[in-house]
Design goal:
Length: 271
C-alpha cells in the first residue's frame, strides 16, 4: 500500500507516516477488493505457480490472500515502509518481506505480480505497467487494483481544505496521484498480453462513528501526503476543518453509521 511517500517521525496522534496500525483499522473493508482481484486471476496454463509477489504489500493482508490462492508457491512481499514490512513479517513469518522502491523494482520471472492499492502513488504508468509485465513468466498475470475516487466528495474536500489560506502555500500541488481509466490501460496492455480484463466496482463501506470514522479511513491513505507537510498545529486545524466538511458530505444514518462509497479500478493482464 505504501510507496515513495515522505516519512515523518512525529509521535503525535495524527502522525501521517505510513503506519500499519492506522491502515488495519479498516482491514476487513480494505481486504475485500483484493479478494475479488485475486479470485479473478486466471489459472496458469498447465502448471502451478512457482513464484508470486505482492508489491506494496502493506501489513500483509493482501499477501495472505495471494498466498492462500497459491499455496505451493514461493511468496514474496515488498513495501517501501519499514513499519509495514515489520507488520507483515510478524503476521506471516513463513514468507519473505523486503523494503523496496517499487518505482525502480525489476525482477522475475514471476507467475503472479499483485499490486493492490499501490500503483496510484507512482508516476509514468505508460512505462511502469509494461516494465511490470516484462517481469512475468509466460502465462503469468499482473493483477492491479487502484482507488478510482478522485472525484468523490472525500477527495474533492481534501483539495478544497488544502486551499485554505492558512496552509495553501505549503500544500500546493500535493494531491498528485496517477489515475487513468480503462481506455488508457486496455490498449497499452493488450499490445503486450494475451488477455486483459478490466472492471470497475464501487464498494459501499458502512463505517461506525460518523464523520470521524471517514477521516480515520483516509488518514491511513489519501490524507497522508497532506498531513505529512503540515506542522502539528496546522495538522490538527486541517483535520478539524476537513472533519466538519466530511460531516456535511457524508451525513450519518440514524444509528451513527456513515456509508462510504469507494470506487476501485481492477486490471488483470495475462502475458
Amino acid at each position: 500500500m505504501s510507496q515513495n511517500q515522505p516519512s515523518n517521525t512525529s509521535h503525535t496522534p495524527t502522525n501521517p507516516a505510513w503506519q500499519a496500525s492506522q491502515y488495519v483499522k479498516f482491514e476487513d473493508e480494505r481486504t475485500r477488493p483484493v479478494r475479488d482481484l485475486v479470485a479473478a486471476i486466471p489459472e496458469l496454463p498447465g502448471r502451478d505457480a512457482g513464484r508470486v509477489v505482492d508489491i506494496g504489500c502493506g501489513p500483509g493482508n493482501s499477501t495472505e490472500v495471494l498466498a492462500a490462492r497459491y499455496a505451493q508457491a514461493q511468496v514474496l512481499g515488498l513495501d517501501s515502509s519499514q513499519d509495514m514490512v515489520d507488520a507483515a513479517r510478524k503476521r506471516l513469518p513463513q514468507f519473505q518481506f523486503d523494503v523496496a522502491d517499487i518505482g525502480a523494482w525489476k525482477d522475475g520471472p514471476f507467475d503472479v505480480i499483485l499490486a493492490n492499492a499501490v500503483l496510484q502513488w507512482l508516476p509514468d504508468h505508460e512505462t511502469l505497467y509494461p516494465r511490470l509485465v516484462a517481469c512475468l513468466a509466460p502465462g503469468g498475470s499482473l493483477a492491479v487494483q487502484t482507488p478510482d475516487n478522485l472525484d468523490e466528495p472525500a477527495h474533492r474536500l481534501m483539495r478544497e481544505v488544502a486551499a485554505d489560506p492558512r496552509w495553501a502555500d505549503t500544500l500546493k500541488g500535493t494531491e498528485r496521484t496517477a489515475r487513468h481509466g480503462a481506455a488508457f490501460y486496455y490498449p497499452m496492455l493488450r499490445a503486450l498480453c494475451s488477455r486483459v480484463d478490466i472492471w470497475r466496482t464501487t464498494y459501499y463501506h458502512p463505517l461506525a462513528g460518523g464523520a470521524p470514522a471517514v477521516v480515520e479511513w483516509f488518514k491511513g491513505s489519501a490524507l497522508r501526503p497532506f498531513l505529512t507537510k503540515l506542522d502539528d498545529a496546522s495538522r490538527e486545524a486541517f483535520l478539524a476543518r476537513y472533519t466538519e466538511e466530511i460531516a456535511k458530505a457524508y451525513p450519518a444514518l440514524p444509528d451513527g453509521t456513515v456509508l462510504l462509497p469507494f470506487p476501485r479500478l481492477f486490471v488483470v493482464a495475462t502475458r
